[in-house]
Design brief:
mainly beta, SH3 type barrels
Length: 78
Amino acid sequence: MDGGAINLYSAEKNNVFTVVSVPNIGLLENLGIRLGTTISLQNRYAFGGPVVLRVEDAYSVALGKDVASQITVKEAGL
């Protein structure tokens, strides 16, 4: 894994990230979350709740903590 890469659930809100690793979950491909996708974390709900992402600055998606924790991202431009 790249230096500076973190799991999506740990990412800071409102920063822009590039996806560098995704688990083999077909739904993610259908949601447009794949290698190289640009996303930003809009909200992380308390107590291990879901995260809300902005995908390619086009639409929002909610993912559970278990799935978000398996997606690896790094800050865009790094």
